[in-house]
Amino acid sequence: MRHTTVAALALVVLACVLARVQALHFFLENGKPRCFLEELPQDTVVMGVYRAEEWSNPTQEYIENLALGLHITVEHTATGKIPIDKKAPSFGKFMFTAGEGGEHQICMSTNTSAWFAASKVRLHLDMIIGDAAEHEVDPDEKVSDVIIRVRDLVHRAVDIRREQQYQREQEIKFRDFSEMVNSRVVSWSIVQLCVLGLTCAWQLRHLRSFFMAKKLV
């Protein structure tokens, strides 16, 4: 029993360490999108759980407004591909899979009429990145907490392996780019030396002709 408890605690701690969850909290102005960038490996699953609240002058606090709408877009900055472009309610979630590795721009804005032009909107957003975003446990499925943690660890391990592979690919690209730049620098240096040598030879010849014309030699 003691070993089982220790194993369960170890799995919980390891899952917390490996979990990749980002909690964001920002404000939206009417019609103006708020965007942030996320570097994602290929085939990475991303789920965002959000809740928007509007400032109420009578109560002097932020409250939920069911009439409030949001516009959510996701774009791969390198290719311009848009996996998500939709209108959404004031609370809910969205999910997409990165078809290509690289930088993704996630934008959110209010989608309201002019009656709400002066409204203040506070948005809570939790980003769950990795296979765990799409492997949610069925509430009707009876499984122990240890099994759930083991499943989560497996998904986290897959995410880590994918992230490592993506980082290796980025390192290879950076190395190839650095080698290309270095080779061009060396080639340009050789060209400069050749030009400098030719210039010196021409100047020496010109000076020799000048001295001979002046009968100084």
Verbal overview:
- The chain contains two helices and nine strands; from the N terminus they run H-E-E-E-E-E-E-E-E-E-H.
- With 217 residues, the chain is α+β, with helices and mostly antiparallel strands.
- The strands form two sheets. Strands 1, 3, 4, 7 and 9 form a five-stranded antiparallel beta sheet that branches.
- The longest helix has 69 residues, at 145-213.
- The protein is elongated and about 105 Å long.
- The termini are far apart.
- The model is unreliable at 1-19 (pLDDT under 50).
Top keywords for this entry?
217 residues, 31% strand, four-stranded antiparallel sheet, disordered N terminus, alpha+beta, 2 helices, five-stranded antiparallel sheet
Largest sheet: 5 strands, antiparallel
- Range of strand content: 25-35%
Count of distinct strands: 9
List low-pLDDT spans: 1-19
The SSE order reads HEEEEEEEEEH
Helix content: 25-40%
Radius of gyration: 30 Å
What is the fold's blueprint, element by element?
Blueprint: H1 2-18, E1 21-28, E2 34-40, E3 45-56, E4 61-63, E5 70-76, E6 84-88, E7 91-97, E8 102-110, E9 121-129, H2 145-213
Structure summarized in a few sentences:
The protein is of the alpha+beta class.
